[in-house]
Design goal:
Layout lengths: L1 H19 L8 H14 L1 H11 L4 H6 L2 H34 L5 H7 L8 H12 L4 H10 L10 H25 L4 H8 L4 H30 L2 H5 L5 H10 L4 H26 L24 H32 L8 H31 L3 H9 L2 H4 L2 H15 L7 H24 L4 H9 L4 H12 L1 H17 L2 H6 L7 H10 L3 H31 L1
Helix pairs in contact: 2-16, 2-17, 3-14, 3-19, 5-6, 5-9, 5-11, 6-26, 7-9, 7-15, 9-11, 9-20, 9-23, 10-11, 11-14, 11-20, 13-14, 15-26, 16-17, 16-20, 16-23, 19-20, 20-23, 21-22, 23-26, 25-26
């Protein structure tokens, strides 16, 4: 048995050494120049925050080093750790079941399990309170048979953790699904031929190959939790985002808010450093001659129906429950005489701006991801990490920073769709970079080197070799961006052109006035629109696997 273990260990070691032998020559201009421009552009909000903070002088240190600030820091970090850990625990088995097994209705689960991503956190917060609050719907259902008069408080850390996990675990799930579908089964087969069972093979061979995808998804979850406002405000759990919002809304103190935002930047830098250490430097691709082939479908056997039940439970809590409550609100509103109005113009605006954002962000993400993976260095790593800073900041901070720059230095694009799309690039660029990077790590650089040796230019290698081989990651990144752009609220409210309404702004307008029935229609329409691209992507993936 010791011989078997040693052979498997050598197999993994060779895998890591193959990745470290990646192409590290000087990157061409078509890669480093746009990557540098993208990284510099997305750092504009950080420049704004630094200028705001430096203008106040020494008073800002009193705010930063108060006991209350350290208490908020502890609550924020605790929430990030809890949500990220639970999201990974949910997504890893889900991704494997929906991508590599004979799970019943596998294609349906592939779509349904990622749809919670489009539910805005402020809507999810209302739903959690309405369903699980001390006198919510669950208490009303249990009151008659069990005489239950009040449920335990859902507010605070438990409610915030549940709510944010409901809407963020698909970040990890989507990146993992793309990575699992791109795995070469040869290493798993080699492990099995050496006598290792399915679980041992998964732990020793498959899981290490998924580490970059897990790290990329966990990074997105962590940064999303860091900047979320809707859930923590509704569940009464004070984090830095809520404190920043209160500084803007109650005292109109942008300087104090900017200083607190810089603390978020510091936390984000720590998270980024942790993610780099976690994912390692290896690239996971074939090092031998031959082409990769689709992996065989794993037979669940007696675990088939328990796995079906697990997927059902996740979808029930994260999708069916929210949609049922939205339907309940809609039914009550119609019964009470509320007019049933489908906001088609807002739906068209949402789809249009989300598609533009997905296209712009994928284009911006490609040179950054290629530079970081194919031409790894301290500079390329720094440029890639810099693009993640905006995702850690609340949307209101990004929006106000762009208002400052737009009104003072870029008046022609102020209050235009161009500035709004730029805000989306700053906010959601990491989603596309993470997905593209995970796919690129699975492609051997020798294929691109062979194309160059045959006389292909950098543009030809990019268009004919690299992009076709990482199309899964590109599609996954575009889907992530499309889904999250649909529900983005603060930046859309502040930066959108006058009269430009989206489904997110329609939902917010209705819920802020407690018109839940009126909010149900655009919320349900939002989920419906988001399901279309996901269904197309999943169908295409399944067709490619069977071809």
């Amino acid at each position: 048995m010791a011989v078997i273990t040693g052979r498997t260990s050598n197999l993994i070691a060779r895998l890591g050494r193959a990745g470290r032998g990646a192409h590290v020559s000087r990157p061409p201009a078509i890669i480093w120049l746009p990557a540098t421009l993208v990284a510099v552009a997305v750092l504009l909000p950080l420049v704004y925050l630094v200028l705001r903070t430096l203008g106040v002088g020494g008073e800002i240190w009193e705010l930063l080093f108060r006991a209350r600030t350290f208490a908020i820091l502890g609550r924020t970090v605790g929430l990030v750790i809890a949500v990220t850990g639970i999201s990974i625990a949910i997504s890893l088995p889900l991704a494997w079941l929906t991508a590599r097994t004979d799970l019943p209705l596998q294609r349906m689960w592939s779509v349904l399990t990622v749809l919670p991503l489009v539910i805005p956190s402020y809507v999810a917060g209302f739903i959690v309170v309405a369903a699980l609050g001390p006198r919510g719907m669950l208490q009303q259902l249990l009151a008659v048979p069990f005489g239950l008069e009040r449920l335990p408080e859902i507010y605070g850390f438990p409610g915030a953790t549940l709510t944010i996990t409901m809407v963020t675990f698909p970040y990890v799930l989507i990146t993992l699904q793309a990575a699992i579908r791109g795995l070469d089964p040869c290493l798993e087969e080699a492990s099995r031929s050496l006598g290792h069972g399915p679980w041992d093979t998964f732990r020793r061979v498959t899981l290490p190959q998924l580490r970059p995808a897990i790290a990329a998804g966990a990074l997105l979850v962590s940064l999303y939790t860091l900047h979320d406002f809707g859930a923590v405000s509704l569940l009464r759990y004070e984090t830095f985002t809520w404190a920043i919002y209160l500084q803007y809304q109650t005292s109109f103190d942008r300087t104090a808010a900017a200083a607190l935002s810089l603390i978020l930047v510091v936390i984000a830098v720590v998270i980024l450093f942790t993610e780099v250490r976690t994912r390692g430097r290896a690239q996971y691709h074939r090092s031998s001659v031959g082409g990769a082939r689709p992996p065989a479908c794993a037979q669940l056997g007696r675990w088939r129906w328990p796995a079906f039940g697990f997927c059902s439970l996740v979808v029930l809590l994260s999708l069916v429950m929210p949609m049922s409550i939205l339907g309940y609100w809609l039914g009550r509103g119609v019964a009470a005489g509320e007019p049933f109005q489908v906001v088609w113009s807002s739906a068209l605006n949402s789809g249009y701006v989300a598609a533009l954002a997905a296209l712009a962000i994928v284009v911006a993400a490609l040179p950054v991801a290629i530079l970081a993976v194919r031409y790894a260095s301290r500079i390329s790593s720094l440029l890639e990490r810099a693009t993640y800073i905006g995702f850690a900041l609340p949307g209101i901070v990004i929006a106000l920073a762009l208002v400052f720059f737009g009104a003072n230095y870029a008046t022609p694009i102020y209050q235009t769709l161009g500035l709004l799309i730029f805000a989306y690039v700053i906010l959601f660029l990491p989603q596309a970079i993470g997905a593209v990077r995970s796919s690129l790590l699975q492609v051997s650089p020798r294929v691109e080197e062979a194309a160059r040796s045959l006389g292909s230019t950098s543009w030809q290698v990019l268009g004919r070799v690299t992009l076709p081989m990482i199309h899964r990651g590109i599609l996954a990144g575009a889907a992530l961006v499309f889904l999250t752009t649909l529900k983005e609220l603060p930046a859309t409210l502040i930066l959108s052109p006058i009269g430009f309404k989206t489904l997110a702004t329609s939902i917010w307008s209705a819920t802020s006035e407690a018109f839940f029935a009126r909010a149900a229609v655009p919320a349900l329409l939002l989920i419906l629109i988001a399901s279309v691209p996901m269904a197309i992507i999943v169908t295409r993936e399944r067709r490619e696997q069977h071809d």
